[in-house]
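User: Could you check the structure of this?
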Amino acid sequence: DEAIDREMMLEDTAESKTSLEEYLLNAKVDMDLLQSELAEKNEMLSMEQNRNKNLKDQICAKETELKELDSSKTSARKELDSATSKISQLQDDVEERASALRISESKLSDMTQQIAEYERRLFDKEASLKQMQDEAIDRETQFANTLESKTSLE
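Assistant: Sure, the predicted structure tokens are below.
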């Protein structure tokens, strides 16, 4: 009996060993598959991390670009404000100069009228002087004629 029990135990042990070997072999195959999957997942993770790093770099570059654009925008606003102020000053200057020009034109018009009046008076005086000269010549001529007549009578 004992030999049969041993034999059965040996058979059970052999079967258990075979089952255990199969289990271990299956476990090893499963482990190899899992390691292969893990390696694949690690590679995907590494690619995803690289993609994330690239995206972070792009985001940083865009943030820097936005800061530069914001700075440019602020600078442009300051320049626009300065230009607007200068335009306002120039408009004031133009208005002042236009006013001064109108005053000068008015004075010039007044002076032109005065010159025209002086020229008219001068023309009148020249005409009067010419008349007086003509009268003086006539009197000289009459005097000379009178003198000549008196001289010839004597």
